Predict the structure.
Amino acid sequence: MERKIPDFAGTWKMKSSENFEDLLKALNVNLMLRKIAVAAASKPSVEITQEGETLSIRTSTSVRTTHVTFTVGQEFNEATVDGRPCTSFPRWETDSKISCEQTLQKGEGPKTSWTREITNDGELILTMSADDVICTRVYVRE
């Protein structure tokens, strides 16, 4: 039987955020940039389009917009939360959760990763980690 792929598509607004500033601190983002990033990222708009296992995610804040497209199970290039180029490998961790390890393309820094999961009640949970610091953001469909 073919596995049902969860529907990540939609426009999402953030309901809650925990540890974002701590995550930036773990990534050695300076205080001034952290304050700007925390303020700007307090109300991100996230638009996801999806075709099968290929997701296109556009995240917009008052400071910047990021756009990434990937297919689960295939490596792709993106940037860490603090803007360093990395190679990412997304995979299904569960039937409704994608986890992604990131490898810096050059230099050294904290080990980074992210997960995106659709809950049974239709929320989107994004986690971002740097070493042992985990930021959790919960989104609801608009």
The chain has two helices and ten strands. The longest strand covers residues 85-94.
